[in-house]
Write a structure and sequence with these properties.
Layout (H helix, E strand, L loop, with lengths): L1 H29 L19 E3 L5 E3 H4 L4 E6 L6 H18 L5 E6 L7 H11 L4 E3 L3 H10 L4 E3 L9 E3 L3 E5 L3 E6 L5 H13 L2
Parallel strand pairs: 3-4, 4-5
Antiparallel strand pairs: 1-2, 3-8, 6-7, 8-9
Helix pairs in contact: 3-6
Length: about 200
């Protein structure tokens, strides 16, 4: 009787372990970036957008995301946060390029009233020679922001100028996989480069 119970217990354990392995293997196969993810996202992030580049041309996400792409939503008149965050992203891209990994930095304005194509283009070029600056109409910018679930709200103007509250995440998007992860501004350039490289290496 004891032998039968012991054998039954072993059989149940084997089935459990086998099932666990199968589920784990299946999850890994389904998400090749599982070991890279540092955040849990509820719901969909990312998707199609249509914006205007520095040359005044209307472009879509397919035109922009042709290789691993690091996207940041901000505005050029931002006094402190945006320049620091975008510079951090640019440094991370430089580190990755030194490692032989090409990642495109993208800056999307959430202040289309002031950020014309020329203004966005000059800002992006000053931050990194390969950075793509994008703006658009109020509707285009809003749709892109909603796709990435970002937040922004302009303050009432004072003396002809105003600030814009906005979220400060950076989003990694892959050409064949779409959005794969987001990163907080607390990461240093080296840390961000390491995290992005994991996705690039497993693409």
């Amino acid at each position: 009787m004891k032998r039968t119970l012991a054998l039954s217990a072993l059989a149940i354990a084997a089935v459990f372990l086998g099932g666990t392995y199968w589920l784990t293997a299946r999850t890994s196969d389904a998400d090749r970036f599982a070991q890279c993810r540092s955040s849990t996202v509820a719901g969909e992030i990312g998707g199609p957008f249509e914006l205007v580049n520095a040359r005044g041309e209307t472009v879509t996400d397919k035109d922009v995301v042709t290789e691993p792409t690091l996207i940041y939503f901000g505005y050029t008149f931002c006094p402190d946060v945006c320049p620091l965050d975008v510079d951090r992203n640019a440094q991370a891209v430089e580190i990755l390029e030194d490692r032989g990994k090409m990642v495109t930095p993208v800056f999307i304005s959430i202040d289309p009233a002031r950020d014309t194509p020329d203004v966005v283009g000059e800002f992006a070029e000053a931050m990194h020679p390969r950075m793509i600056g994008l703006t658009g109409s109020d509707t285009q910018v809003k749709q892109a922001s909603q796709a990435y679930r970002t937040y922004y709200k302009a303050h009432p103007p004072e003396d002809g100028t105003y600030l814009v509250d906005h979220s400060t995440f950076s989003y990694l998007v892959m050409p064949d996989a779409g959005f794969v992860d987001y990163f907080r501004r607390e990461l240093r350039p080296e840390e961000l480069a390491d995290k992005v490289q994991c996705f690039v290496d497993n693409a």
